[in-house]
């Protein structure tokens, strides 16, 4: 009998039966290491594993020509990683057995649940992400973002308005047509500004203001380049750790009675 929250899955390659999380969409056999795509289970019996389809001539040719058919899925719980088919929606860490979500999420309305995926999060212009914590590999923001977004890759902003949520990313791109104000400090490896932005930026890499880009605010970074754009504000180069410590200390200071709350930034968009 399967444990609560787990189901029996049979390997189509060797016949081995193993327990997997009920939410898993795919896994690997612990006996022969073959890939198992988990399909919808019937009302009676365990989920049936979908047999792999024959490889087509086009797929073989794509493999010979170097087409990327697999990706590396990194575990959230440990340093484990697994190579999976590009279209996989989930897998299991080979090191600790933790579930790894690989799905993409498209936010088209109000969404407040937490997300932890190695896929992409897309907030449409009608979307409203209000989750306490969202972890993903890449993201695009066109709508409201009031939660906390942590991205191991690229976050692209295509928005005219205000973002009150917190963003941490390896790379933050401000699209050319964007006019955006960040209420909370941005933490990123690299920030690339092609549009109009008001923010406090803490960058462990370089902040770049491209042609037609305009940045208003305070910047703490290891490098800063203005490539035909405009910058208005304060700039500190090299002392990123001190900036992070100052912001953390300011957040912990008790607010005196009658003192107005800082909404997160003292800057607004400059008039066109």
What would the keywords be for this entry?
272 residues, 13-stranded parallel sheet, three-stranded antiparallel sheet, disordered C terminus
- How many helical elements? 2
What overall geometry do the principal axes of the alpha carbons give? elongated
Class inferred from helices and paired strands? mainly beta
User: What portion of residues belong to β-strands?
Assistant: over 45%
Q: Cα-atom Rg, whole angstroms?
A: 23 Å
**Average pLDDT for all residues:** 81
- Stretches where pLDDT is under 50 for at least 5 consecutive residues are 40-53, 258-272
Q: How many separate domains?
A: 2
Distance between the termini: 67 Å
Number of strands: 25
Largest β sheet strand count, sense and barrel closure: 13 strands, parallel
Notes on the structure:
The protein is 8% helix and 47% strand. With 272 residues, it is mostly beta strands. The protein has two domains: 68 residues, no CATH class; 148 residues, no CATH class. The chain is elongated and about 65 Å long. The C terminus is likely disordered. The N and C termini lie far apart (67 Å). The relative contact order is 0.07.
Précis, in short:
The chain is mainly beta and 272 residues long.
List the helices and strands and how they pair.
Elements: E1 6-10, E2 17-21, E3 26-28, E4 35-38, E5 49-50, H1 57-64, E6 70-74, E7 81-85, E8 90-92, E9 99-101, E10 105-107, E11 110-111, E12 115-116, E13 120-123, E14 128-129, E15 134-136, E16 138-141, E17 144-145, E18 148-157, E19 160-163, E20 166-174, E21 179-182, E22 186-193, E23 196-209, E24 214-226, E25 230-237, H2 240-252
Parallel strand pairs: 10-13, 11-14, 12-15, 13-16, 14-17, 15-18, 16-18, 18-20, 19-21, 20-22, 21-23, 22-23, 23-24, 24-25
Antiparallel strand pairs: 1-2, 3-4, 4-5, 6-7, 8-9
């Amino acid at each position: 009998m399967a444990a609560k929250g787990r189901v029996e899955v049979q390997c189509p390659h060797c016949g081995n039966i193993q327990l997997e999380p009920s939410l898993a969409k795919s896994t690997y056999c612990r006996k022969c290491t073959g890939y198992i795509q988990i399909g919808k289970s019937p009302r009676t019996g365990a989920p049936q594993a979908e047999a792999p389809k024959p490889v087509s001539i086009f797929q073989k040719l794509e493999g010979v020509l170097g087409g990327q058919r697999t990706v590396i899925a990194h575990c959230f719980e440990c340093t484990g990683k697994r190579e999976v088919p590009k279209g996989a929606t989930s897998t299991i860490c080979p090191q600790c057995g933790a579930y790894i979500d690989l799905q993409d999420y498209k936010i088209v309305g109000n969404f407040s649940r937490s997300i932890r995926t190695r896929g992409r999060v897309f907030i449409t212009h009608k979307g409203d992400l209000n989750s306490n914590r969202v972890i993903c590999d890449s993201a695009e923001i066109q709508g409201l973002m009031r939660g906390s977004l942590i991205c191991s890759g690229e976050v692209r902003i295509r928005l005219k308005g205000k973002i009150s949520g917190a963003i941490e990313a390896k790379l933050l791109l401000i699209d050319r047509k964007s006019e955006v104000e960040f209420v909370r400090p941005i933490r990123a490896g690299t920030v690339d500004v092609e549009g109009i932005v008001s923010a406090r930026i803490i960058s462990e890499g370089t902040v770049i203001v491209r042609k037609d880009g305009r940045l208003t605010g305070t910047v703490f970074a290891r490098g800063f380049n203005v490539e035909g754009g405009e910058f208005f504000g304060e700039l500190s180069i090299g002392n990123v750790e001190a900036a992070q410590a100052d912001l953390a200390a300011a957040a912990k200071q008790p607010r005196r009675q009658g003192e107005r709350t800082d909404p997160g930034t003292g800057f607004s968009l400059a008039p066109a």
